[in-house]
């Protein structure tokens, strides 16, 4: 990352940027009962790690296990310093935080999405918490390449205890973070965040 984008990325992290999910509309979050940390850390062998990719903006996200196949929009920072979230629309899309690495670059690439989208019902990440370790995620890039990731862990955490360092902190390999809301509903939204951690498994140029 450039100095400017890294600074913005760290600023976002330190501000404990959380997904602002819609508090109205279809369906409650499908959180696994009683689960906070619901699967184990990755045991991938670094010696067999795929090569990293050059910077290319993500264009599409596919998660076959939960039926996700969505365009990816760019998200920046809002005026209050929080990460922007995708707009509440009938055709919900995921959004990539553009101050994070692009998928396939070294570091944590961050993609956010809604669990519900107001009166429109289910959001694109409605079933994110159903993912399990070993499930596959494919991100297609604007340059025609793609990065395939393997889920290493899935966590449901209270927004008040958001693991900023684990999500936004430096890592020495290409990783992916998918974030949405979850847990109990309140009048304004949800109390928890669902966070998927994944590591790069294959690249296609």
Commentary on this structure:
It is a single chain. Helix content is 8%, strand content 34%. It has one domain: Beta Barrel (Sortase, Chain: A). It has helices at residues 3-14, 164-168, and strands spanning 58-63, 68-75, 94-97, 107-112, 136-141, 146-158, 174-185, 190-204. It is mostly beta strands and 205 residues long. It has an eight-stranded mixed β-barrel with strand order 1-2-3-4-7-8-6-5.
Descriptive key words:
mainly beta, Sortase, Chain: A
Give a short summary of the structure.
Helix content is 8%, strand content 34%.
Global outline: globular
Helical content band: under 10%
Q: Count of DSSP helices?
A: 2
Q: Provide the CATH architecture.
A: Beta Barrel
Tally of individual domains: 1
As laid out across the biggest beta sheet, the strand order is: 1-2-3-4-7-8-6-5
CA-CA gap between termini: 21 Å
Strand content: 25-35%
Q: Element order, helices and strands?
A: HEEEEEEHEE
The computed structural class is mainly beta
CATH superfamily: Sortase
Number of strands: 8
Low-confidence stretches: 2-8, 10-19, 22-44
Assign the CATH topology. Answer: Sortase, Chain: A
What does the average pLDDT come to? Answer: 82
* Biggest sheet overview: 8 strands, mixed, barrel
The CATH class, by name, is Mainly Beta
- The radius of gyration is 16 Å
Protein name: Class F sortase
InterPro entries: Sortase, Sortase_dom-sf, Sortase_F, TAT_signal
Keywords: Hydrolase, Signal
Region (Disordered): 26-55
